[in-house]
Automatic annotation (TrEMBL):
The protein's name: Glycosyltransferase involved in cell wall biosynthesis
Organism: Marinilabilia salmonicolor
GO molecular function: glycosyltransferase activity
UniProt keyword annotation of Signal present: no
Domain Glycosyl transferase family: 176-321
Alphabetic keyword roster: Transferase
Matches recorded under PANTHER family: SULFOQUINOVOSYL TRANSFERASE SQD2
């Protein structure tokens, strides 16, 4: 098969699925936006994958590029790129043209307007929708896609990369009392809730727990200095894997997180977790009380309570949570993701 992805910002987990496709002899063509400066991943593209820079093509040239590729299926990122929509309109009705999106349905005015625009903007371009999970499926239904034309599982972590480290927690004799945050230092990630919540708990009831944070962003220079908080900067996936060996519980306090592939990654790696109710991926990879705790979005006291609960657990209880996370994390992987593409998602 010739598979064409019209993508916005690439991430390393996406390439794990691409590698599965090329390993099975399929030709993968990827049009991508420039690399995000706040997530400067270094990509290793497999043989059999061809990459095109979106800013090298205008709308007409992009359609001509797609025609030269002769794709068997097109998978395109939402509706933000008008050139991508033009390509899908050209091929709609001849091959599956699949819209990917990770927006959750909130019923905002903008989303209500998109519902009205969908018959003219989306349906002439897309035959199917491929979404990460249930929160996005609701929105796709609101946009008028038929239930049988909506499929879940658009995001998959690089499970193989993370799963092998689960034994660092599930078989640990002395469970590591270290929380770990992985993500950007931006307002939407809720670090302005996490830092004071952690510091207040240390002042109220000093304990052995530390907080390690991996990432960078516009708020990095405003990071608090505290003896039990480590700021590690941006880490490439292999560097991150080494850091994770020393930590025990994942925390993601995002106030806005449509999905959050990092939740899948940390589940596969066997991390008990604390997540806000805004995080889409928690609907699949966090089961309350079994492998972690949810807290109410933007509620610092709720976050403190979740942290207290985790910090009160014994080594045995933490190991049991780690094992449950791991089982949830390995329940979906890049091989399954590639299988959906090979079946042309909608067929």
């Amino acid at each position: 098969m010739n598979i064409l992805f019209l993508y916005t910002e690439l991430a390393s987990y996406f390439l794990a699925g691409v590698k599965e496709l090329t390993k099975n002899g399929h030709s993968v063509h990827i049009v991508r936006w420039p690399v995000n400066k706040e997530a400067p991943f270094q990509f290793d593209f497999p043989e059999g994958a061809t990459v095109y820079e979106r800013n090298h093509y205008n709308k007409e040239e992009l359609v001509e590029l797609a025609k030269s590729i002769q794709p068997d299926v097109i998978i395109s990122s939402g509706w933000v790129d008008k050139g991508y929509l033009s390509v899908c309109r050209y091929f709609k009705g001849c091959i599956p043209t699949v819209m990917s999106m990770d927006n959750q349905w909130h019923g905002t005015l903008r989303q209500q307007l998109m519902r009205l625009a969908a018959p003219w903007l989306l349906h002439p371009a897309y035959s199917h929708a491929w979404v990460p999970g249930a929160p996005q499926k609701t929105y796709a239904l609101k946009l008028g896609f038929k239930k049988q034309h909506i499929h879940e599982g658009f995001y998959s972590a690089d499970v193989r990369l993370f799963a092998s480290s689960s034994t660092d927690r599930t078989e640990s004799t002395s469970y590591p009392r270290k929380l770990v945050y992985v993500g950007r230092y931006v307002q939407q990630k809720g670090l302005d809730l996490l830092f004071p919540a952690f510091i207040e708990l240390q002042e109220e009831s000093p304990n052995k727990w530390e907080l390690w944070c991996a990432g960078t962003g516009e708020l990095f220079e405003q990071r608090p200095q505290h003896p039990k908080i480590k700021h590690l900067g941006f880490l490439q996936p292999d560097e991150l894997k080494q850091t994770l060996k020393e930590t025990g519980v994942f925390v993601l306090p995002s106030r806005f997180e449509p999905w959050g592939v990092v939740v899948h990654e940390m589940a596969a790696a066997g991390f008990p977790m604390i997540c806000s109710t805004a995080i889409g991926g928690a609907t699949r990879f966090l089961e309350e009380g079994k492998n972690g705790f949810l807290f109410e979005n933007e509620d610092k006291e709720s976050l403190k309570n979740a942290l207290r609960q985790i910090m009160s657990l014994s080594d045995e209880e933490l190991r049991a949570m780690a094992g449950h996370s791991h089982q949830l994390g390995i329940s979906y992987n890049p091989e399954m993701w590639a299988g959906k593409v090979i079946r042309r998602v909608g067929d």
